[in-house]
């Protein structure tokens, strides 16, 4: 190992502890958790979980409910990863990745998947629990579509503000 790869503040494996109070620039973004985007994502995940519970506790219906159940879990996993990436400020650590654009496309993708799977489940399954799961999937789709609109409008306003600041006067 060469000297170039060793940072200058290397202390030979001794952990450094700070006695000062935690700074405002911590590792966790608490403001994101109370933003409208996080609230919409968490609401969508809750509706997906309710939809999943409604689907797996009823009788089978030609495996159409399995499609929505798997889509619900995929949406929960994807949206959880997006929330974690924003809460732990990974966009500051990985400058080359546009997390806002990734969030937008993942959200639109999840909304389309939920809409298709919920519609198929409502149309083909006649059990009340499965229809309830499909309706909860539609509610989750509406929440996540609202999140996509919020992301789009925020990016559009950011782009308009940046272009107005770059114009010569």
UniProtKB/TrEMBL annotation:
Keywords: Membrane, Transmembrane, Transmembrane helix
PROSITE patterns: MARVEL
Membrane topology according to the record: Multi-pass membrane protein
Major localisation: membrane
Cell location: Membrane
Membrane as UniProt keyword: yes
Domain MARVEL: from-to ranges: 32-156
A cellular component term, taken from the record's GO annotations: membrane
Transmembrane segments: 38-59, 65-89, 101-124, 130-154
InterPro entries assigned: Marvel, MARVEL-CKLF_proteins
Name of this chain's protein: MARVEL domain-containing protein
